Amino acid sequence: MKRISICLILFLGVVEVSAQKDSIYIEAQLSSDKKTLAVNQELVYYNNSEKDISSIKLLNWVSAYHKRGTSLVYRKLEDRNTDLHFAKTEELGKLLSLSIKNSDQLEIPVNNISDENFFLPLSNTLKPGESIKLQLQYQIQLPDKKFTGYGTSDKNIALKYFFIVPDHFDPDNISKRNYHDIEESVSFNTYWTVNFDLPVNHFIESNLKQIQMNSFKGYLDSDPEFLISQNEYPSINVDTEGIHTEVKFGYNLKPEEKQNLEFYLPLQLKFIKERIGFLPERLFISEKFREKEDFFGNNDITFWKFRFQLFTDAEKTDLDYFGIIAKKILDESTITDKQDYHWFKNGLKSYLEIQYLKNFYADAKILGHLPEAKILGVKPLKLFHASKVNLIDRYGLTYQYIVAQNLDQKIDEKYAVLSNFNDMAISSFETGSLFNYSAEKMGYKKFNTLVESFIKRNTDKQVDPKDFLKELAEVDKRTAYLTDFISRKNRVNFKLKKIKKENDSLHIKIYKNTQASIPVKLETQTKEGEEKNYWVETEENEKIKTFSIPALDVYKITLNDDYIFPESKYRDNFLYAKGFFSNTKKIKFKLIKDIPNPEFNEIYVSPRVRFNNTYDKFLIGFNFKNQSFFDQKFLYSVTPTYSTGTGKLTGSAGVSYSFLPAESIIRSLTFGVSGSYFHYDYDLAYRKASVFSNINFRKNPRSTVSRGIGISYNYLERDLSPLMIARNDYDKYGLWSVGYGYSDNQSIHEKSLSVSTQWMEDFHKVAAEAFYRWEFAPKQKLSVRLFAGYFIKNNTRNNTFNYGISRVSDYSFSYNLLGQSATSGILSQQYILADGGFKSFLPGSVNHWIGSVNVDSSVWKIFHVYADAGVYQNKNQPTKFIWDSGIKVRLIPDFLEIYFPVQSSLGFEPSFKDYAKRIRYTLVLNLGSIINAARRGWY
Hints:
By secondary structure, the protein is of the alpha+beta class. Helix content is 19%, strand content 38%. It has 13 helices and 46 strands. The chain is globular. 31% of the residues are buried.
């Protein structure tokens, strides 16, 4: 009996220790100007690690806002947001004062109150299960809310991550954790008591339970949020069918939006509860949370004064808030370290979304109701495959889009290094697709029961989601591949190899490119549309599987239809069992670029009208290519055109193939050939044939750094005029080129470097170019370019291959000059930043060596000043120094700019009679460059 009593005491003691939670008591006073917060705080901290600790780490994350160079500022710059970098002193957040005392009222020293992590030494070692009480007094200068959505503004004050708290994901108190604005929970499983002293006529809302005016108390498995405003924000109480949940909003709702929510919220909460078994008593939805978690892709399309609605307002509200509510409930019910296990809750959110769409939006299209819009009685969007793509296909399509560029990341990548796009495409959509695939295979009821059980057993506990995958594999061993799957970039592909009919059976040969045992869903369809589904089991190390089914009237066979599994490509998942296209794919011609239909070999035929140069003038023709909205490894493009300037047939063609290794130092290795035929002068044509190879090195998708190597051989033939023949000009030549390029397009300090060499039988030259652009104030930049060129050998017959000073010699026909051979007139004034890079028309070219520097600086709005200087030497000539300066007007930065020369080696140029002819301009008519510039920071 005595032994039983001792064991009972020990058991109760363990239970008590394991159940011990930190408690934080706060008295906070907001200043009348709403810029500072005075805090008196009592913290009871328990040692929940398995060893003695001699110091405690506290997080002081308001210091992430206090200066340039913090992790937060750097992350914002990665997203091309410079607001915090250029913030005024009064807009920054920081700790103004701090005092920390232990339970004996002894001051605990803090080395630097600007640190984001305080490591506080303890006078006595704290053993596992023991606690210490700390008294903190500090004053916070709140940052401007525009930086992260938290801080102060004229409208309201949002408080989150500003109080000084322990890091519960680091019970050993040894690792630094800086603030990245990624909505991670760090002070979970804590009992909070928070009392506010607010200015008159201010209200406060929170995710904590309010016990009286301005006072909150209770346990949270997430971090506390507070919203202070002079307005009361709406809330909706759902009290029906065993659901008792209050949803509070940190923003105003439009009357129609609130009415829609009052209808949809009970349905959404019931739907979620049936699948995860948990609903909290209250949910607080902040404006920031809504913007982060709403439904991607259901917004109206606006163009100029026109607005095209994809979904009705009620449907948008339903779609938006289902994901918002689902993610908020998962955040409140499950404790995971977001840095390592972001994919678990994101994946479950997407899984729930997929289920919701299957139930209520099964027939909805990704373009919503837009394809039904009529123009002159016609529905033009019906011509696109995109109009037939289901809304639920967005999960697989988004994954396909990013994988096609080899910019995806593994699912369990650290969250801080995930690109913004991969946060959605990989962490959410790919994981959600895998969960749904597993659930469909094992049965949704089994999967939902497992999720519900896992959440319930781990309430108020930090969980390792990999334990969930293990439990999933125990219930259905065919999901065992998931543990390894999430830890690498995958290129899984199932391929229908061949269909063979024997008697009344079809023998279907399926190939998979992985050793993992992954089941595949096979669907048959008759000409009448009757469908039948089969699950094909594959074993480890089994790459070819033959599966037999009754022949019946099977017309088409599909693997993993509707993008239900994240494959690297779906183009080989379709075969026909009957007809002319048996065992092959049909060919389809399309007029306009579209979302690819993997069922067909698509050829895009599009009319082309473009201005080439003053000689060909407008080119009219057709372009035949296989490139859709998604990148492909194999690409071809053929563009025959009619030259209105010459009345002759011109055009270009090219074919390339890219290798995209999933995990390598190389992102892409491309080989290609191309050819073109155009005119470079009146009645003078050129023919160009190229063979090339490019290597783009692997990059961190959040990084702005790109590196690559290019190798090419260009063979050129030119028609020559009688004068050119008399000068013994070049009519045929072959150019070899090798170059390396490095670029870093970050927001504040943009830089690039290139080194290249080019040669043929008569010359060999090398060149290097460095570029640096510094944004020293918002939208105010200073740029510096350095160029150096040197001929190792130069036995050329004329100046065709010389380095240019103020004009480039486009002997390789690669600069898209409007007037290739123009020596006068507006076309000759086009400026290309290459070689010497001078804007003034300084005479001559360089056949030995040249070095130059080009400087450009903002002055006011679109007005800049520039200056160029350089030295060069021609063979058997003395070294010369040249320079120029002037004013630049940037109408469209980097694409349309005008240069007005002022002073140069030639003198004061505005005094020249022909000054108008000395004005230069840049004009870049490359839509791809504009798109790439616009999407920086997304991925």
